[in-house]
Amino acid sequence: MTYATTYHSEYDTHTQSLKTKAITSAVKRVRKLDATNQGCKRNSQGQTAVCTNSDFADGFLRTSFLPVLAETKMTQPCKKDIKMERDFYQSLSQLAEHYQIKPTQTQIYNYPYNIALALWDTKKQLKSKIRDWEEIKLIQDNRKTFFTSEERYNTNATLYYIPIVPLYRLLKNRKRKHNAQLLLSVCCYLYHGVNIPYYRQENSFLHWQYDMLKEYLTNDDEDEDTSIYQSEFDQAEWIGDRMEQKIFNPANLTYFKERLNRFQCKGIFDFDCLKLAKDAYALLEQYPNENVFRNARPNEEADEDETENILTMDYYVSFYADGKGWLHENLIQCVNNELQEYGEIEEPCVLKRFDGSDTTENNLDFENRLFALIEELIYILNNF
């Protein structure tokens, strides 16, 4: 994929930051930020074959072992521990009901092993069942003990940049008029409903990046390619301004359903456009008032004086000019250089408390469908 970037779900946000390498050529889908860790390669010969002694029973291989508590010394629980244990199981019951899991019966074990075993079992079940589950924490305040749960959409440090110039060209293609109208309705929804930033808006991150590149080009010594680079800037600005007027027009939302109903598929490209538009319209109907930033949270709790170190979502989700050419490659390089300075990243995240109060039913279904939609839109616009 091309034009987007992501983080590992359990990376150390305090020590890890985005890194840059030499800029890569334009890709087909979503572009990844230049900061991926290289894993170990597999041994082509595989593992050395090991056989068990034939004297052992086969049942031994099917045995699962309970976790070992690090603190082996068992003590008689005091009144404070008894209250904590009672709160723990009450909170666990609420969490299990919310996520529809069945905790293992651990009350038969002594304290504190029963607590450790219940935590291990709960984490294991949540990890296998809940798509966006990140972690659970056991909170102890002055009054009670309870669980908190975090669900986080992992963006994998992806730049979700939607190109506008290809949509402009598609609108000029008479054979693709209906395709262009469908995609125009999709972009109108993303612009108005989802509130995705547009690079020609002066308060947007990419507007600032384009301005810096233009200033650099203006102050640099001219050569035989300067006029070509300048023409790319002129095109990005001229087309960007006119396409914003079209995308801004709410008529594209008014006629969205009508365009869907009258669209006829004649090939693979038509099918891809129709499927994308149907997914966008379904998202619009189910979540008419939700925007991309609704659950944005840093991956770590930050103090007020650390907010400038947080990479916000509007930096990596935006409309931009084009996915090809000198301007695109230098823009991505500038973005990578800028984003590597941040130590934390905002991502869609939902926190839930299981302390006896009503638990929020909010989840990340909207974000999962939205980012998949954006990736597909980027792919279609870059490959029609």
Short summary of the structure?
By secondary structure, the protein is an alpha/beta fold. It is 42% helix and 11% strand.
Description:
The structure is a single chain. This protein is an alpha/beta fold. The protein folds into 2 domains: 75-152, no CATH class; 156-348 and 358-383, no CATH class. The protein contains 11 helices and 8 strands. Strands 2, 3, 5, 6 and 8 form a 5-stranded mixed β-sheet that branches. Helix 3 runs antiparallel to helix 4, helix 4 (177-192) runs parallel beside helix 9 (268-286) and helix 5 (205-219) packs across helix 10 (325-339). The longest helix is centred in the middle third of the chain and has 23 residues, at 226-248. The protein is elongated. 30% of the residues are buried. Mean pLDDT is 83; it is low at 1-29, 35-64 and 69-75.
Number of helices: 11
Arithmetic mean of pLDDT: 83
Give the total of beta strands. 8
Run of helices and strands: EHHEEEHHHHHHHEEEHEH
How many discrete domains?
2
Helix content: 40-55%
Per DSSP, what share of the residues sits in E-state strands of 2 or more residues?
Answer: 5-15%
Integer-rounded radius of gyration: 26 Å
Assembly type of the chains comes to single chain
The computed structural class is alpha/beta
Helix-strand layout with pairing:
Layout: E1 31-32, H1 79-99, H2 113-129, E2 133-140, E3 145-152, E4 158-163, H3 165-171, H4 177-192, H5 205-219, H6 226-248, H7 251-254, H8 256-262, H9 268-286, E5 296-298, E6 310-311, E7 317-320, H10 325-339, E8 344-354, H11 365-383
Helix pairs in contact: 3-4, 4-9, 5-10, 9-11
